[in-house]
Every structure is written in structure tokens, then in C-alpha cells.
Amino acid sequence: MNPLYLGNPIVGVTRESLLYKSLKAMQHNIDKMNDNVENHRFETLEARISRSVTYMVLLRHELAKQTLSSSLSLFALNRHLYRLDIKKGARALVNDISKYDHMTGTIINGKTLEYYDGLTDHYCMRMQDKVKHCQQAMDAIMAKQPEYSALVPDTRRLLCSLHLSVVLVGYCFERMDFEIEHYKQRCLPLERLRFLSLRNMYFRADGLLAALQRTLFGKRDQVTVTSPEVDGLDSLLLQMASPEHIDEIIREYDKEFDGTPFEGDAPMPV
Fold first, then answer.
1. What's the per-residue H, E or C state across the chain?
2. CA-CA distances (angstroms) from residue 81 to 16, 72, 159, 189, 256?
3. CA 116 to CA 119: how far, in whole Å?
4. What CA–CA distance (Å, rounded) separates 153 from 79?
5. Is 51 left (phi over 0), alpha (psi -120 to 50) or beta?
6. What are the pLDDT tens digits along the chain (270 aa)?
7. What does the alpha-carbon distance between residue 213 and residue 194 come to, in Å, rounded to a whole number?
8. Which of 128, 138, 154, 141 is nearest to 73 (CA)?
9. CB of 59 closer than 8 Å to CB of 175
10. Phi, psi of 12 (to 5 degrees)
11. What distances in angstroms separate CA 243 from CA 50, 163, 206, one per listed residue?
12. What local confidence, expressed as pLDDT, does residue 107 receive?
């Protein structure tokens, strides 16, 4: 991975990465500048956008990756399917996830890494029930198809979980692209977040889903499940894209974190 550096939008150019600066800002106070007024401190709009979007990207990526990892673990209950293209695709995805985790672990270190790990765990735990609800709702919809309803429970669970994982991973890379474009006039450095894209992971996961469907049904399933059909899915996606929701979870976790809590109102950009 090429090193990606961003000048501190408040105090000038530094050689710290955007990711590191954004994470560090959540443990400590955002760097402040005096506007020639004693004790008057404020955070620039660029810094707010940078921090907000970075955290939204990191947390929802972690949720999507954990959902995908859980889906892949279900092959342990479906060993008869774990062969040929399916085995190859699943192993490649495990490797992709491992590389992504290693990448973030290399960029983030020390107390920052401890904070980041705890925050992502807290976020995923908060979202876990919503993900499970969506899996159950998707299963109910897909059960209307005779071929799907005829599958044994463990295989149904695998197929349904993988299907939802593909939706979440795909949403993550599309949403990040949208946010970078949306805010680029006010925060051009967000372009440097593109190395965190889950685009390749999405296409690999979608390919695995297609291979699984061909193995089970003799062809790729042609039935499209849209988000309005799946009870709770639109709500889940909206929360994954909500700065206010992310901010709420961060503040909630900051109360528990054994370190310097985040201070101030720090409103998220709209």
C-alpha cells in the first residue's frame, strides 16, 4: 500500500496519515486554533468532514467485513459445498479480509489501535441485532422460492447470510464513493480514503455467491431481493450512512474507554 499523507487542515502540513489523524482526533481533542480571541477554539469544517466521513467509512466497513466473515464461517456446517470454485473464492475472501485488517493494524498503533478495536467491536455489537433481523427477513422472502425452501437449514442460513453480506459490502464501497464526491469541494483530502475501498472485496463476494447459487440451483438465482422488500434493511443502511448515529455510538463508547474522552459538541457535517 502506498503511504497516503494529508496536511493537518488546522496547523499545516504533517506526515501523519489521514486515517491516523482522524482516529487520534477521537481519543483526544481535535486540534484547535486560536482565532485571535482568548480561549475561543473551533474545529475547521474540513477537519469535521474528514473525521466524520473517515469514521463512517471505518465503522461500516468493519460491520460489513464481520458479517462477511460470519458468513464464510458457515461453510464449516456445509463442507459438501466447500470445493472447487467455492473453496477458491472463500479462501480468497478470507485473505482479503486478513490483508485489510493487517493494513489498518499497520497504520494504527498503540493507544489508538486499542481505541479503534474497542470502538469497532462496540459498533458491531450495537448493530448485530439489526443485521440478524435483516437475515431473518431475507430468509422469509427467499423461502417463497421452492428451490430455496427445499434446502436444509444450515445451507439456507449460509446462502441467506452470504447474500446479505454482498449487499452490505457493495453498499459500503458505493457509499464511500458517493461521500468522497459529495464532500470533495469542502474536503478534497477525502480522495485519499479510496485505498480503503471494499470494491474488490464486493466483486469477489458476489462471485462466490454466484458460484454457490450455481452449485445449489444449477444456475445463478435470478430473483432480485431489493432493500424495501427486506424488513429493516433500509433502516440498517440509513444508520450505516448516518453521521449522527455514528457520533452517538462514538460518544457512548468514549464514556467507557480508558483514555482521553472526546470533548465538545463536534457536530457532524450535513
1. CCCCECCECCCECCCCEHHHHHHHHHHCCCCCEECCCCCCEECCHHHHHHHHHHHHHHHHHHHHHHHHHHHHHHHHHCHHHCCHHHHHHHHHHHHHHHHHHHHHHHHCCHHHHHHHHHHHHHHHHHHHHHHHHHHHHHHHHHCCCHHHHCCCHHHHHHHHHHHHHHHHHHHHHHHHHHHHHHHCCCCHHHHHHHHHCCHHHHHHHHHHHHHHHHHHHCCCCCCCCCHHHCCCHHHHHHHHCCHHHHHHHHHHHHCCCCCCCCCCCCCCCC
2. 45, 12, 11, 44, 43
3. 5
4. 14
5. alpha
6. 222 222 222 223 233 444 444 444 433 433 333 333 333 345 688 888 998 999 999 999 999 999 999 999 999 999 999 999 999 999 999 999 999 998 887 777 777 888 889 999 999 999 999 999 999 999 999 898 898 999 999 999 999 999 999 999 999 999 999 999 999 899 988 998 999 999 999 999 999 999 999 999 987 755 556 677 899 999 999 999 999 999 999 999 998 876 554 443 333 333
7. 31
8. 154
9. no
10. 110, -170
11. 12, 26, 28
12. 76
Instruction: Tell me the C-alpha distance between 263 and 46, whole Å.
Output: 18
Question: What's residue 26's pLDDT?
Answer: 39
Please give the grid coordinates belonging to residue 41. 477554539
Nearest to 102 by CA among 137, 131, 65: 65
- Cell 482516529 sits at which residue? 23
- Look up residue 236 and give its amino acid: L
